[in-house]
Specification:
Keywords: DNA-binding, Transcription, Transcription regulation. The protein is α+β, with helices and mostly antiparallel strands. Helix content is 45%, strand content 16%.
Amino acid sequence: MMEKTMSLEDFYRKKLGELPSDILQKTGQFNVFRLSDYFGTTKAMPYSRKDYYKISLISGENVVHYADKTLKVEENMLLVANPQVPYNWEPLSEEKTGAFCVFTEDFMNGFGNFKDYPVFQSSGTPILSLKDADFHRILAIYDRMFLEIRADYDYKYDLLRNLVFELIHEALKLQPAKLESNKTESKASERITSLFMELLERQFPIENPLQQIKLKSAGEFAYHLNIHANHLNRVLKETTGKTTSLLLNERISLEARALLKHTNWNIAEISWCLGFEDPSYFIKFFKKASDATPGNFRK
């Protein structure tokens, strides 16, 4: 069962028992913690979405549930979590060391478009398996964070932002190689693609059975972007290699699998949330996308 979205304030109250007013008022949106101080050795973290970003370094064996996926990490891991996708992790080994930092989007304002990196995309790989040498190298970045956040230095949060970027780039270096985008595509096409993806992602996540996506077709997206549907489809095909319908269907399928796996909502409720007025259409759509009916997938 998926819990409600956790805010950063909820996190502080749950883990610290109070809001650290000096941190919230001075920086607004960043903190760093030792893993052992806030998690028991065998307690699983609840499956939920958060309204903040979190980068966690965790030792030992773990199982991670991320959107519709379940992954087992044998050694150590770096988990890069974002507000769009629900997740939790379960420790499989008794001793847990590591650290994690939490921050919100406004903390990173003016420090680059970090959300554009693959580790923060719904189709990316936010769970990275680490060898011991990688683990200790990344732990050293967290150690610097602990040192700087306690320092009496007027610009320490600028320095901490840089350390967050170091963590992100360590994660990116561990990513599989990605195909480079077409260098000749126009800035106009890139902008249309970016605006389309923003409109698409803005409809998710689905957090309650009364929430329904509003944009369900290429024509509806094109209308909001003030362009013709054929032009939108051509631009997306050039920049992503996929049609408007395929991108929309892939995102709906991802959310459908997450809802089937992590909620107890019935099929009719899920199909309505995802824009299907008739559950039979949703069942047909899901079977084509996932090679299983929603009921069989849930089992």
